[in-house]
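Kindly review this record before class:
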Amino acid sequence: FNPGSVAVIGASQGDDFTAALKSTKIRKNLFLVNPKYKEILDKKCHASILDIKDGIDYAIVAVPASLVPKVLGECIEKGVKAAHIFSAGFSETGLDERIRLENEVKEVAEGKIKLIGPNCMGIYCPKSGLSFNKNSSPEEGPVGVISQSGTFAQLFATDGKIKNISFSKVISYGNAIDLDCPDFLEYLSDDPETKIIALYIEGTRNGRRLKSALTKATRKKPVVALKGGITKQGSRAASSHTASLAGSPETWSSLFKQTGVVQVENFDELADTILAFTCSPPPQGKGVSIITSSGGFSVTETDSCIKAGLEVPQLGEKTIAELRKIVPAAGTSIGNPLDAWPIFYDKYGASGTISDVIKLIALDKDIHALIVHLDEIRYMAQVWGDTVEYHLKELTSIIIDGCEYARDKIGKPVMLCIPLDAYSEKEDDRRYCLMVKKAFEYNRFPVFSSLDASIKALSNLYKYGTRFHND
């Protein structure tokens, strides 16, 4: 994860690794290897790694599969400590000759060099500058990602900044002929820079060791996992993707449950749950209050919470009495969910603001978490006209005040749902939504683009908290 020098073997004018590494702190100790070129991107290119005078810690091997054994032999001769094999075309093809080629690679390397891959993207580590995508953020963060899929690793590295997630390490490990998922789990469980672990896995070569590594990791920090290949067709796809034995969905669900792993169903839920963990404490119970600027979703919101294993309890009589002093009765629903649309627009009611509403609900003993649903920004823009930006900033500041009280003073997690109007024809509508989203993110609140995402992420936080408490 922290090499002093890196060589890209098979570098070319358009390869992602060279472009990515040239833009990070590793660039001064980056060496390129390809006998076809004298120079790439204004940087000298060597015919062989053996022609480089400096020592090399880490090699990225991006050559045709048939050349990998020879290249690895040269890396070993050079004294390279670890190699990431980007090259594909090994056992994942299912072809006998390719399986034999993978075994040859393993034999060449065994005991002499550590391998990541083949058939993977390798490592993205903002602290050291290792990267496989030039669009990855240099910002360091608390999330460690272990992904058998290179595509998922790429999505995390690039889309993470859109969701306000930053990373300690992102690992794509592919066919795992040497270093495997348990190796990386054991490392990240002890890594002080990693606070949460996200895992995408298609299969394993050693179930017992994986179980041990998962158990060790979950005793120290949250682990959120997406298992690929849980259907018959998905299992077949996993085998052709990374040569994995996928196993039955029941076996994997049992494994995750026994080891305390939070299991999710798709990539979006994985990313959303990780976001919630980076911002919020687990709720101390199932009770959720939904505060909305539109009452149209109240029935489906409640149904979604119940399906997710949460509850939407009645607010206490004292809470409702206090809310009636602030929220106008006409056109609203003073209960849970709470449709309090007038107080969003007026901001300052006769007896309080939306911040006061949030604080009152946070104090209710049957409420353990809050979801604030701000879904009418486009309509607010119509109501407020030319002054919309001023009013939105003021409203956002007021809501943040209440949310910070709920989270920081009372210790109850707060999820924000802000649909981003991606399909709006007006660029200003999208800009206003992003402005509000960024204000909440700046204050470390998790922001989701749908109620379903907010509810699922909160449910997963609750599940983790329950398991942790039971332990």
In short: Residues 347 and 394 are 8 Å apart (CA to CA). The chain has 17 helices and 18 strands. The two ends are 32 Å apart (CA to CA). The first strand starts at residue 6 and ends at 9.
